[in-house]
Amino acid sequence: MDRRSFLKLLAVTGVGGVAVFEGINQFGATEAAEIKKSTKSLQGKHWGMVIDVSKFQNAEDFKRIANACHSYHNVPDIDDPKQEIKWIWQDDFEHTFAELESNYLSEKIKQQQFPVLCNHCESPACVRVCPTKATFKRDDGIVAMDYHRCIGCRFCMAACPFGARSFNFFDPRPYIKEINPEIPTRTKGVVEKCTFCVERLDKGLGPLCEEASRGGIVFGDLDDPNSEVRKVLGENFSIRRKVELGTGPSIYYIFGGGGQSA
Amino acid sequence: MYNGGKIIAGLIIFAAIITSPFLLNIGKADEAPQPSLDTPAINQMSEKKCVESAEFMRTGHMQMLNDWRDQVVRNGDTVYVSNSGQEYEMSLENSCLKCHSNKQEFCDSCHTYAQVDPYCWDCHTDTKGAGQ
């Protein structure tokens, strides 16, 4: 074969190949007339939360929000701290606000427990390290996960400074008391975490922990100056966890109580 | 040819063994699967139609579910408007399986026949919450 006919053949196969692939693509196309957001869905630019610590005084307050979250989202109840799965849980001052150490903490603060969950950071470390983009940041600020893409490398768990992620070392289904058929479970080998109830926001509902908190948690758009969260933040002294790390948590803590001037 | 008889006899036996699955099953083709549409939700429908035409769903449902997943998980778009203008929530649990509540007689009948083992059911549950 001379050079000229070889090049001709190359051109013909190239065109033919493109045509075949186009054909395959058309075969697989979705026939939708349109794909759109639900008209009911809540729209925000930067979802965040304010947690009023003074509303969380006894074990019942924590149990209520964790149960609401975990039972709805099919989070398994595993009684081993090394293998447990948690989306929202509690911790003490020393571990929640490690950088705010004081030699002479008041007894009240020492005893106080704090609700903790994924902080849905402004620049999340977990998203940066994920090699498959299974973890990503949505336009509304929620750090979401596509479990289909998670390969279980656990880089995100190492990167997250808040311990907000849990790994499924085994099939979680036997540990779920009652499976909620509206929500998928997870499977062995994927990481999971709080979703900010993204599937509820898309239906126009707020997060479950907010709903169950009886006013202890306020959810809203931090970018909207007229939102409830911004109003609460404007009236109270607030702190965030580990801000010095620069991830920009979207969960704010206030200590409520509203003391009188001296 | 040395040992010609043995070699030829061996070849014949070999050919017989290799072709035996085909020879034994001639004319006994497995019945094509009949995915059952007999569920309460479907029986109640006045016009029995899926999100798109049956032909499209038969050949393209896997691609469609992939697209649905990306749209819902990545973009937060949850509503699918079909060619007929009807709106559907893009959800395996809350749309597909609400009508096709008989996973074993519907999904599994073809998947088993075609020997495909989609891992959807590792996480997604059928309506009874029993998973696989």
Portion of residues in beta strands of chain B equals under 5%
Task: Tell me the radius of gyration of chain A.
Answer: 24 Å
What structural class do you assign from the helix and strand content of chain B?
Answer: mainly alpha
- The number of distinct β-strands of chain B equals 2
Helix count of chain A equals 9
Sheet with the most strands of chain B? 2 strands, antiparallel
Inertia-based shape of chain A: elongated
Can you offer a commentary on this structure?
The complex is a heterodimer of chains A (262) and B (132). Chain A has 262 residues and is an alpha+beta fold. Chain A has one domain: Alpha-Beta Plaits. Chain A is built from nine helices and eleven strands. Chain A has helices at residues 3-28, 59-72, 93-96, 107-111, 125-129, 155-159, 198-201, 208-212, 228-235, and strands at 34-36, 47-52, 88-92, 113-117, 135-137, 143-145, 166-167, 191-192, 217-221, 238-239, 251-254. Chain A has a four-stranded mixed beta sheet. Chain A has a two-stranded antiparallel sheet with strand order 3-4. A two-stranded antiparallel ribbon of chain A has the order 5-6. In chain A, strand 5 and strand 6 form a beta hairpin. The radius of gyration of chain A is 24 Å and the shape is elongated. In chain B, 17% of the residues are buried. Chain B is mostly helical and 132 residues long. In chain B, a hairpin with a 5-residue loop joins strand 1 and strand 2. Chain B is elongated. Chain B contains five helices and two strands. A two-stranded antiparallel sheet of chain B has the order 1-2. Chain B has a domain at 45-119. Helix content of chain B is 48%, strand content 5%. The interface between A and B is large, with 37 and 39 residues.
